[in-house]
């Protein structure tokens, strides 16, 4: 038994699939945003002062309760 597909339908499906893939990839790339660096990233930046990092830390934690593993104690040790 041999099934023959018409080439026009097959090409149309391939073109649609490629277009859909390109659309999805470009939509994903457009959705990427660059967030503001966290205070933890700024601590290794040599261009910032201690007080700038400290101010950003307190702004980040304002109204939040620190949980284990989030870096709060590590920063407080570094700050001291």
Q: Helix/strand-derived class?
A: mainly alpha
Q: What Rg, in angstroms, do the CA atoms define?
A: 26 Å
**What's the multimeric state?**
single chain
Distance from first to last alpha carbon: 80 Å
Q: Residue share in helices?
A: 55-70%
The biggest beta sheet, please? Answer: none
- Given as residue ranges, the uncertain stretches (5+ residues, pLDDT < 50) are none
Number of helices: 4
- How do the SSEs run, as a string of H and E? HHHH
Structural notes for this entry:
With 80 residues, the chain is mostly helical. The protein contains four helices and no strands. The longest helix is centred in the N-terminal third of the chain and has 24 residues, at 7-30.
Short descriptors:
mainly alpha, 4 helices
What's the arrangement of secondary structure elements?
Blueprint: H1 7-30, H2 39-42, H3 50-61, H4 72-79
Tell me briefly what this model is.
60% of the residues lie in helices and 0% in strands. The chain has helices at residues 7-30, 39-42, 50-61, 72-79.
